[in-house]
Amino acid sequence: MDSGTQADGRVLPERWQGLGAVAGLAAGFAGLCVAELAAAAVRPESSPVTAVGGVVVDRTPTAVKDWAIRQFGTADKPVLIAGVVVLLAGVAVVAGMLAVRWRPAGVAVAFGFGMLGAAAALSRPDAGPKDALPSLAGGTAAAAVLLMLATALVRPRPDWWPAGARGAWALDRRGFGRVLAATVAVSAAAGLAGRRLGAFGSAGATASRDAVRLPPPASPAAPVPAGADLRLPGLSPFVTPNRDFYRVDTALVVPRVDADTWSLRIHGEGVSRPLTLGFAELLARPLVERDITLACVSNEVGGPYVGNARWLGVPLAELLREAGVRPPSAGGPADQLVARSVDGMTLGTPVETVMDGRDALLAVGMNGEPLPFTHGFPVRMVVPGLYGYVSACKWLRELRLTTFAQYDAYWVRHGWAERALVKTQTRIDTPRPFAKPAPGRVAVAGVAWAQHRGIERVEVRVDGGPWRQARLAAADGVDTWRQWVWEWEAEPGSHTLEARATDGTGTPQTGMRTGTVPDGATGWHTVTVRVADRSA
C-alpha cells in the first residue's frame, strides 16, 4: 500500500494528499481574499498579485516582454496576472500536501510566500512601508487557515492504538468539509468586501473626472481637411476612437488619480523657479489643441500599436521656460527631462526636442473629453515625433531636469535606446493577410506615418515587381498619419503585396528588416493574399 509518513513515524495513506491539496488551495484563496481586503485600505497596487506581477515584469528579459506584447497584445496583463495566480495556486497545493504530512512545514510555506509578496511590494519604485501589509496579512491568514484545515482533516487515533499501525491517523471528511465550506464562504465575503472597498476608494477619482469641464482651446486645431479620411472598408479611421486607442504600459492596475488632489512638480538642474501646479491651475492656462499620432516602439512592422487623436493640453516648452529652463543649445545644463508617473514609471525625453518648437503637450483631453483613466487621466505627456517610451508618460506627477549621463530611465535600464525618433512606417490595412479577394479591381489601402516629418509618398508593389505610387489622402499636418490607397487589378493566384513610404524630407523607408529593440522596427510591410479563380 502506497503511504506517506508523518513526522512521528506514523503511516498516512497517500490518497489523503489530494484533500491536503484542496486544503492548501482553500488556504491560498483565503490569503488572497484577505490581502485584497487589506489592499483596499492601503492602495490597489499593494495587492500581492499586483506586486509579484510587477516584479515579474521588471525581471523579465526584454525579448520575452516583446514576444508577450506580440502574442497577447493588450491582453498581456490579464495573461500575466493569470500566470501569477496559477503560481500562487501551485505553492498553495504544495503547502497543503506538506501540512497533511507535517503541519509546521506547510504552515511555514504558506506564511513564507506572504513574506515574498511583502518583499515584492516593498521593491516597487513608489512603495512605502504600508505596501507590505496586505501580503503579510494574506500570508498570516493563509497559514492560520491551513493549520485549521489540516487539523480538521487528519485527527490522531487514541493513544492505545498501535504505533505505526494502519489507520493510526483518522480522516474526518465530514468535519473537514464543514470547515472547508465555512472557510471558502468567509474568504469570498472578504474578497468581495475588498473589491467593493476598492471601488469606493476610486469613486473620488471617477467623480473628479466626471466633474471636469474642459475649457475651449486658446489655439484650436484646424478642422480635419476634407479627404483626409478615405472611409474605405477595412481601413483604419483617420481619428482613432478612445476605446480603440492602443495601450502598452507596465501598470497591472490602472492608476485612478483624483484630479482634485493631483499636483505636478517641475524641478531639477537648470530650474531657477521650481513649479508645483494643480489640475485646476493647468486648466486655467491657455490650452492648445492638436492632432498628433502616437506610436509604440514595441510595434512590429505592420503592427497595431499606433493611433491618431486630437489632444488638448498645455504647451510643455512654455512651462519649462517659466521654470527657467534653457535647452542645451542655449546653454542649459540639463539635456534630459525625466517624467515620473504616480506608479513610479520613469521616461526620459531630450530637453532639446521638447523645446524645439514642436507641439509637445501636457495633455488633459483626448478626442474632446478628459483623458480616459487607461490613457493617463488627469495629465499625460504627448511629444510628436518620439516613440512613447521616451515621451508619452501617463498619470504624470513629476518632471525632473537632469542629464542622460546621470540617469537612466526605466526602459533604458531594460535595454532600449536613450533616444528614439519615430521611424518612417507604412501599414497595409486592407486586404488583410490571407484574404481571398475576387479577381478584378481591389483597393489596397493603409496608413503611413513619420511624425514631425510628414509623408510625401507611398508606393506598393506586387510579387516583387515595379513600385506603383499610391494615392495619398489629404494631409493634416506633419504630426499625423496619412491614409493612402492603390487600385490593383488582381489576377487569380497567390500574390505578395508590399508597401513603402517616403517621409517629408524625401528619405524613403528602409526595406531592411530589424526587430523592435533597441529603438523601433524597420522593414516593409508584406501581405500575402490568394485571389480566387474567375470561374469560382
Please characterize this protein's 3D structure:
The chain has 536 residues and is an alpha+beta fold. The protein contains 12 helices and 22 strands. The protein has a 5-stranded mixed β-sheet with strand order 6-5-14-9-10. Strands 7, 8, 11, 12 and 13 form a 5-stranded antiparallel β-sheet that branches. Strand 17 and strand 18 form a beta hairpin. Helix 1 runs antiparallel to helix 6, helix 4 packs antiparallel against helix 5 and helix 4 packs across helix 6. The longest helix is centred in the middle third of the chain and has 29 residues. It is globular. 44% of the residues are buried. The N terminus is likely disordered.
End-to-end gap:
68 Å
Strand order across the biggest sheet? 6-5-14-9-10
Rg from Cα: 29 Å
User: In one word, what is the shape?
Assistant: globular
Strand content: 15-25%
